[in-house]
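Form 12-C: Joint structure prediction
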Amino acid sequence: MSSPKGRGGDWTPPLHANPPQGRGTSDEGRSRLEGGPEARSQQSEPLLEVRDLTVHHGQLRALDRVSLRVFPGEVYAIIGANGAGKSTLLRTIAGLHRPTDGAILYDGKDMTKIRPERRATGGIVMVPEGRRLFGSLTVEENLKVGATYARKGPWTIERVYEIFAWMKDRRTQRTAQLSGGEQQAVAIGRALVANPRVLLLDELSLGLAPVIVQRIYAMLPQILSTGLTVLLVEQDVSQALRVASHIQCLLEGHTTLEGRPSEVTAEQVEAAYFGLSQAAAEGSEALWHGSTPSSRAS
Amino acid sequence: MAWVNAIIQGILTGGLYALFACGLSLMFGVMKVVNLAHGDLAVIGAYVALGVITVTHIPALWSFVIVVPIMAVLGYALQRTLIQAALDRGVLITLLVTFGLSVVIESGLLQFINADSHSLGVGESIITGSFSIGSQIQLPYLLLLIFAVAVVVLLGLQYFLSLSRYGRMIRAVADDQEAAQLSGIDYRHVFGIAAAIAFGTVALAGIAYGMYSQFSPTTGTDTILLFAFAAVVIGGLGSLWGTLLGGIVLGVAQQIGAQINQADQVLAGYIVFLLVLALRPQGLTARRAQS
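Section 2 - Result
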């Protein structure tokens, strides 16, 4: 992934342009996403592709032949209940788990056996579940660590301070002293300064008050305006439906539902999320099973 | 006056102990490796210095210019191979592996060199002298120099860890390896750097010990490792300045013990060590991250 091909050239970010939706409320967030699927059908090449990924934790099969294709500029949300395999999927894409089977392709190249730090420097950067900041380091040092092997791009520590205004004044504080929401912001900043092409967000809302979660998701349009692609995992389904251009629901390691938020009904989501009734499950089978991502994106 | 002299001698010896201890503390703080071969590596440093001095005839004082880089490279190589392989199998395995390393080094030295004691002769330089305050207090230049080296090493480490890019990466990796990987950092390389630094300080400690006293293949485990452990535990694990404080406390306790009865020198050090373990197991300095 160290090949310089396509670095920076293929995604020119509108740096100082106003973010498309300003402070995205839910409605604005959704209106943006209506554009997503068109882009999806026109784009022939996905930026990130997962093919039949199977991952085991010891004897337990955490993921069973899960596939997904994420196109440039998308906000792709993985939803599902606790233990559905969402985080495992994201961590495997980041390189922290070894899959037993299947492949991960990034920009058309096979990444399955690449070490996590090479994936990060190549442009796949994850904000891990539970923030995972460097607790003995200051806010600024955390950002500097994130920027150590950064790709070229629009994100700098200064720019992170611009979108999170409070951060600059508190940059010399240790992150252990910050509140959960503040820590999450630093974790996002630490990922952004690496200038990822694909940003993986693992359970941003975990352990945070709803109002804080709202505020963090409201930053998403500003982040997307720099040309990022986002793959996120979220337990909060309504939140995911609001921000995503494409959703995929996992249940016990299987894909149970996939589509644009506008295409799926609340009942389908509910059935896919809980694996409720046989009928609903069959319905979703008929709708989604076996269809390739490109055939869906009509 | 004899007591004041004992305390001053103890403080100065503490510099040597701190030099032993800081590499041990660094490797534990960053990689969670308790390096049981630490003392033997110091002895290896002393033997390498002996070899370098014999071959090149450079003064013992300057042997560190060659020995420290050699040991640093050895440290990086050992960390990236043997110790990393042990770490991948679990932290406890590193105890077994470094213990094995210690046995191998000691036996190897006995087998291929001999069991004789050696020292690094500093010759008739000014360093062998001392200056006196009054009739009772004597300050040997060598001990003063070793103490100064220890302070410089600790200051340098502190500066490096808190301000340099690699120092920041070392602290980040010590906090959270996985998160460091997600920031593009190859933690195994960073471990190697930390080990190289630790081995460099061990080499300095070995040379200092060789000039100060006599060493033989078994000195590593029966003296250096134990004193280093005592200094680290007394000072507080993972704290660099704690190792200096721990070294000083240990040194002073030993000298006071010797003042009471020559045979009680080592015993007095371990009594303090046990007292700290019993009364303040986190060490004298509050537990902080690497600095």
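Section 3 - Comments
The CA atoms of residues 158 and 291 of chain B lie 6 Å apart. The beta strands of chain B are 130-133, 137-140.
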